[in-house]
Amino acid sequence: MASSAVVESIEDMQRLLGERNYIADRSLATTLFLSLRMGRPLFLEGEAGVGKTEIAKVLAAGLDRRLIRLQCYEGLDVSSAVYEWNYARQMIEIRLAEASGEVDRSSLAADVFAADFLLERPLLQALREDERGAPVLLIDELDRADEPFEAYLLELLSDFQVSIPEIGTVAASEAPLVVITSNRTREIHDALKRRCLYHWVDYPDAERELRIIQARLPGLDATLRRHVVAFVQRLREQDLYKLPGVAETLDWAQSLLQLDQVALDSATIDDTLGTLLKYQDDIARIRGSEAARILDEVKTELATPPD
């Protein structure tokens, strides 16, 4: 079973990813390797659906580490991300103490603010020891969170410790492997980026996207696979509201596999565009004559022998 101890080179990292069907270019594998070696958080930016979140999942599986995921959203605060007290249990404990007639306010206060009443959220969980080693902490879509939470996260990444007034400081004996993702709906502050190694995850080129589909959907006809990738690559050249990512390419290929398609035709494209495009204006723009035109260009291009 793979562990961080056997990732001795960039090639080892590429192999670790490839064994779990994540086809990474050398630049990404290099950044991941350096993040492990240097103990630095990894900051991944890119459009939605290009595989940023999957990197953390594959890394955790490949290193046999626990994956802890914090999904960010507007209004995310410390009680949701770090810890909060189990108020319902505390109230029950207080009522039971009152019913027994043995109420010492100072000792009761200490009792109900003990670790047993603490609800640990992802950031605190990531600081705890684990027999398999430091976990992989995925902080997903940080750009959706508010700036005050981003400032708190900056402090946490500096020392990997959390101060709980009623209990004390909880510090990580081994820093977690941190992967932060952003879809760039807003800019993340430079101070946080400087704490991390940075990588922009772009749409794959045709060759790599072919390898991704082949790895994930080996049952798909080879000719159909080439047509799917070429069609999606052409779509990404269009002025659409949301370009299809790798996730959408895989969804589309999967739908064609479920329909037992062995060839791509205009009618099938029109019927399945909803697995590839997620906005009605984009679907309306491509469906019909535009889809037929792109398909004709794709078939002509693939039928023409290379020079």
Notes on the structure:
The chain has three domains: about 140 residues, 3-Layer(aba) Sandwich (Rossmann fold); about 35 residues, no CATH class; about 100 residues. The chain is about 50% helix and about 10% strand. The protein has 15 helices and nine strands. The chain has a five-stranded parallel sheet. Strand 6 and strand 7 form a beta hairpin. The longest helix has 15 residues. It is elongated, with a radius of gyration of 25 Å. The N terminus is likely disordered.
Keywords:
307 residues, alpha/beta, Rossmann fold, two-stranded antiparallel sheet, disordered N terminus
N-to-C CA distance: 45 Å
Mean pLDDT: 90
Reading off the top of the CATH hierarchy, the class of the largest domain is best stated as Alpha Beta
Coarse morphology: elongated
Contiguous uncertain segments of 5+ residues: 1-5
The name CATH uses for the topology of the largest domain is: Rossmann fold
Q: What is the count of β-strands? A: 9
What does the oligomeric state look like here? single chain
Largest sheet, described in full?
5 strands, parallel
How many DSSP helices?
A: 15
Rg from Cα: 25 Å
Strand order of the largest sheet: 2-5-8-1-9
* Category by helix and strand content: alpha/beta
Q: Proportion of β residues?
A: 5-15%
CATH architectural grouping of the largest domain: 3-Layer(aba) Sandwich
Outline:
This protein is of the alpha/beta class. It is about 50% helix and about 10% strand.
List the helices and strands and how they pair.
Elements: H1 10-18, H2 26-38, E1 42-45, H3 52-63, E2 67-71, H4 78-81, E3 83-85, H5 87-100, H6 105-112, E4 118-120, H7 122-125, E5 136-140, H8 147-159, E6 161-164, E7 168-171, E8 177-182, H9 190-194, E9 197-200, H10 206-216, H11 222-235, H12 246-258, H13 266-272, H14 280-286, H15 289-303
Parallel strand pairs: 1-8, 1-9, 2-5, 5-8
Antiparallel strand pairs: 3-4, 6-7
